[in-house]
């Protein structure tokens, strides 16, 4: 029996990302880390693809270059987390709190961020193609040069959001509040 097999998945992830990634590559079964306390954890490069992190506390966690594609982050706490260049494609993060998180150059293609909190979140150069942000709160978020092609923002609150240089092709803004938002051309919405 390997030491990875004797260590619980949560302990392994929190202490040795390389061993966690090796464990994940040898075991493709479902991993449930719901309600896990990973606040402030150093998880750069971690393979969390498809992992269930429902209700987990990842506040302040460092997830730079991590893979979370298809992960479940419903109601998860990611306040202040660093997800720079992370792959969150297809993630389900309904009602997740990403306030003040860094998602610079992250991939959020086809992500479900409905009713998520992205207040003061940095999404510069992020790829959100096809994501659903219906009823999400993006107050003061930075989306400069982000790709929002086909994004659903119905009913979203975008007050004071910065969209300078963002691509909004086929973006659905029905019912979205753009009060004082900086639009892609640099002008401010009324």
List keywords for this structure.
single chain; 190 residues; little secondary structure; 11% helix; 0% strand; elongated; disordered N terminus
| Counted beta strands | 0
Tally the helices.
Answer: 3
Average of pLDDT: 94
Percent in helix: 10-25%
- Percentage of residues in DSSP E strands: under 5%
Structure classification: little secondary structure
- Globally, the shape reads elongated
Low-confidence stretches: 1-5
Rg, alpha carbons: 17 Å
H and E string: HHH
Q: What is the straight-line distance between the termini?
A: 64 Å
Q: What's the main sheet like?
A: none
Task: Please give a structural write-up.
This protein has 190 residues and is largely without helices or strands. The longest helix has 10 residues, at 17-26. It has helices at 3-6, 9-15, 17-26. Helix 2 (9-15) crosses helix 3 (17-26). Helices cover 11% and strands 0% of the residues.
Structural topology:
Blueprint: H1 3-6, H2 9-15, H3 17-26
Helix pairs in contact: 2-3
Could you write a compact summary of the structure shown?
This protein is largely without helices or strands and 190 residues long. It has helices at 3-6, 9-15, 17-26.
């Amino acid at each position: 029996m390997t030491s990875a097999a004797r260590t619980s998945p949560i302990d392994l992830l929190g202490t040795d990302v390389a061993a966690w990634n090796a464990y994940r590559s040898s075991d493709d079964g479902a991993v449930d880390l719901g309600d896990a306390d990973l606040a402030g954890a150093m998880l750069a490069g971690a393979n969390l693809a498809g992992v269930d992190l429902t209700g987990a506390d990842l506040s302040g966690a460092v997830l730079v270059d991590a893979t979370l594609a298809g992960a479940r982050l419903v109601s998860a706490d990611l306040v202040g987390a660093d997800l720079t260049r992370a792959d969150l494609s297809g993630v389900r993060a309904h009602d997740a709190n990403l306030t003040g998180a860094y998602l610079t150059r992250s991939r959020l293609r086809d992500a479900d961020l409905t009713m998520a909190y992205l207040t003061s979140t940095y999404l510069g150069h992020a790829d959100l193609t096809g994501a659903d942000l219906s009823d999400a709160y993006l107050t003061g978020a930075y989306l400069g040069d982000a790709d929002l092609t086909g994004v659903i923002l119905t009913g979203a609150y975008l007050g004071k959001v910065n969209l300078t240089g963002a691509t909004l092709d086929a973006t659905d803004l029905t019912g979205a509040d753009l009060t004082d938002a900086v639009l892609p051309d640099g002008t401010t919405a009324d």
